[in-house]
Design a protein that fits this description.
The protein is mostly helical. It has helices at 14-19, 22-25, 28-43, 61-67, 72-84, 100-104, 107-125, 135-141, 148-159; strands at residues 50-51, 88-91, 94-97. A hairpin with a 2-residue loop joins strand 2 (88-91) and strand 3.
């Protein structure tokens, strides 16, 4: 596996799948291929949301129809409709699921930046004192030990 970490799951808008425009715009076969396309866009290629190989080249339609276990005509019908309806876009780089990041943005993605910033700040501070540590644990972890009297002296000198 090259390039990026692959997902083993995708988000599906349940209400949209059951009651949305996809129900009257696509046949049942095409709906199944649409859902498989979303899953395929999550695990193949070098960029999430784009169906292509690891080298950035598009897959032939015949290959994708084979992967989705459907006739080529049904795959191409679904693709044509999804392009017209602005669900997909096809170019020389592959087939892109439009609005991928909006649909697949997760709670993990939302807090990921905060978690990384927190870890960075924590690593910059170095080892932190824990009142439950013994003197030996503090020495082993490289935590500077200051007695209560010295701490008061330091506070007094900084106030002057």
């Amino acid at each position: 596996m090259r390039g990026r970490k692959k997902r083993n799951w995708v988000k599906i808008d349940c209400y949209g799948m059951l009651h949305g425009s996809i129900n009257w715009q696509l046949t049942l076969e095409e709906q199944a291929i649409w859902v498989k396309s979303i899953a395929y866009a999550a695990v193949c290629g070098d960029t999430a949301g784009i169906i292509r190989d690891n080298d950035g080249s598009p897959f032939p339609h015949e290959y994708l129809a084979s992967e989705f276990h459907c006739p080529l005509e049904v795959f191409e019908s679904m693709l044509k409709k999804c392009i017209i309806q602005n669900r997909m876009m096809e170019n020389e780089h592959g087939i892109e699921i439009l609005n991928w990041s909006a649909y697949q943005f997760t709670e993990y993605d939302r807090v990921k930046g905060y978690q990384e910033a927190y870890r960075q700040r924590k690593s910059e501070k170095g080892p932190q004192f824990n009142p439950d540590y013994t003197r030996e644990e503090c020495i082993r972890k490289g935590i500077k030990i200051i007695s209560a009297e010295k701490e008061e002296e330091q506070d007094a000198t900084t106030q002057i």
